[in-house]
Design goal:
The complex is a heterodimer of chains A (113) and B (118). Chain A is an all-beta fold and 113 residues long. Chain A is built from no helices and twelve strands. The radius of gyration of chain A is 13 Å and the shape is globular. Chain B is globular and about 40 Å long. Chain B has no helices and eleven strands. The chains are: A mainly beta (113), B mainly beta (118).
Chain lengths: 113, 118
Amino acid sequence: AQKITQTQPGMFVQEKEAVTLDCTYDTSDPSYGLFWYKQPSSGEMIFLIYQGSYDQQNATEGRYSLNFQKARKSANLVISASQLGDSAMYFCAMTNLGQNFVFGPGTRLSVLP
Amino acid sequence: GAVVSQHPSRVICKSGTSVKIECRSLDFQATTMFWYRQFPKQSLMLMATSNEGSKATYEQGVEKDKFLINHASLTLSTLTVTSAHPEDSSFYICSANKGLAGVEDTQYFGPGTRLTVL
């Protein structure tokens, strides 16, 4: 069975600093996808970044990058130059093609001015 | 892009009434749509998966007669909470994907519906 672990229930970061949100996963499938979503207080789930299990390079999307360490089964999200608008819940998720998403418990990020 | 709309965004109803929530994929055809429920400060809990033209697949513990799902077309799925009770009050979120591999397997979420049953 697939499982996602996010060990940080809450994180604080100073504006303009970088922050890493941890995510570890467990699966026996060789092919899978890893996703990060942002959920602001409005409730909408916003897709941030995707990493495929066979991707050779770490995914990047603007200020977001994914530190993918396959052997350690970790897929940490790095947000560079934090902004006040980055304050939100962040969920790590994974899926295998044709199977449902599995979400982690989430990390609440608070960006301090 | 991949935009998913959800309507209504907020609904308050009396106990015993039924509430219908619509989920639409606006700019793509969604092979599969998903319905989630989220309690405060918790992660998303998958309720059911629906495919166009077939019966929804419900997760264990989710009452199919309580939460009716209809996936009438490749762009529309509806969730009806029948005979709603206060314990059904929650945030309901739908998502849709294109049913393709890799990054195209991304689920795109609607803005959610906050249901309050009095």
